[in-house]
Amino acid sequence: MLVEPTDLRHTHTMHVNGSQWLGEPTNREPGKCTAVRWFPFEQLPARTIDYPAAGIHAFRAGVAFSTRGWSDLTPEA
After folding, report:
1. Is there a contact between 16 and 69 (Cβ–Cβ < 8 Å)?
2. Which structural domain, as residue segments, surrounds residue 49?
3. So what's the pLDDT on residue 20?
4. pTM, whole model, 2 decimals?
5. How far is CA 5 from CA 8, 15, 18, 56, 67, in A?
6. 13 in a domain, yes or no?
7. Residue 62 domain-assigned?
8. Does 65 or 70 have the greater pLDDT score?
9. Is 27 within a domain?
10. Residues contacting residue 68 through CB under 8 Å, at least 6 positions apart
11. Which residues, 6 or more positions from 17, have their beta carbon under 8 angstroms from its beta carbon?
12. How many domains does the chain have?
């Protein structure tokens, strides 16, 4: 499947500490899950991975930017 740039619109940016992925969706952990599937936003599986679920919930709430996995502590000078 090819997605054209004109088919896209920015809806949410999530800055996640320690997570990066690039590629075609595939089931790379068959011992942990049985398939890769598409779901309606309002019917996500209970065991959805936390950072994609957080981004989806923020998108649905109209939040344009969020963070996940970053400490709220300010580093000492």
Report:
1. yes
2. 45-69
3. 66
4. 0.57
5. 5, 22, 27, 21, 25
6. no
7. yes
8. 65
9. no
10. 14, 15, 16, 17, 50, 51, 54, 55
11. 67, 68, 69, 70
12. 1
